[in-house]
Amino acid sequence: xxxxxxxxxxxPLGPTxxxxxxxxxxxxxxxxxxxxxxxxxxxEELSPARARADFFSRWTSEARFxxxxxxxxxxxxxxxxxxxxARYREPQHPWFHKEFRFQLLGNLRGKRVLDVGCGDGxxxxxxxxxxxxxxxxxxxxxxxxxxxxxxQLEGVEARAEFFxxxxxTVELPAGHFDIIWGDGIxxxxxxxxxxxxxxxxxxxxxGALLVFSEPVSxxxxxxxxxxxxxxxxxxTPDERPLEKAELSTILRHLPDLELKWFHLxxxxxSLILPTCQTYEHAPLARKLAxxxxxxxxxxxxxxxxxxxxxxxxxxxxxxxxxx
Length: 323
Ligand SMILES: C[S@@+](CC[C@H](N)C(=O)[O-])C[C@H]1O[C@@H](n2cnc3c(N)ncnc32)[C@H](O)[C@@H]1O
Prior knowledge:
By secondary structure, the chain is an alpha/beta fold. It has eleven helices and seven strands. A seven-stranded mixed β-sheet has the order 3-2-1-4-5-7-6. The site of S-adenosylmethionine (SAM) has 21 residues, from helix 2 and strand 2.
């Protein structure tokens, strides 16, 4: 792509060459905040033209990567497993980070939830099934289509809407959401993390809960060791675990930030549960083994000096109430 001749931030193109929709204006009743474009803070060290090209190539490669996964998942789309729905409706095993997060959410009835980087839509659909009104945003047109199909299949399409846009440019009303949820998204947005966090907090109501689950690495030698363990991970070229600097950035926006660590030994669960077998359907012995890893992790990771050995962190905080 020629610098200076690339698409603008206002008209990013998707992997098929069509413009990615950026159509949230008018989603809700007119809100003055929606009439302003969200300013994307371009990295200062890059010239504006170079930075636009940089954004564009990152968005395109992310959308292409996740579109491929979406295509496979769409071919196998089926209703959510009732055991999975029950698991997250009443989470009993907080040593699993997703159950822990659903416990944090509490009663979702009537809550407005924003799911950023909503991916395959399983989380958004679960939250809608539990009574929330969910807005999902994702850069992958394939995933957004899958989310819509899934919501329809589960009969929650009236409470779940999905939009295809880079998070960096999407327009949403200020002070609107009770909960902002992100599962594995912030570590895809590291160059813009400060600007993105500012936007997320702006879209949240005062006192709203923001909850993220992210890979975090505060121990460089452990990161190297993990890379050596032959556990398959699907990663895009632009992602990496969050480090101390990124956690400090998040802290600036959420002063009451709480970090809960997971995945020291828990990462080995995937070796106990073959990929085709979910925890819900695993034989009792395997379930108990995975539970044990999770419980041991919780004991080890509650020791202050050991916390940072965890590979996954649930990051949560509330938007400060005005004084
Ligand atoms: C690791 S996946 C997580 C998906 C989903 N939250 C889940 O838990 O299954 C990251 C998601 O972020 C989306 N994504 C990456 N960069 C994005 C951006 N700049 N704006 C919006 N979505 C983005 C990808 O398309 C992908 O669906």
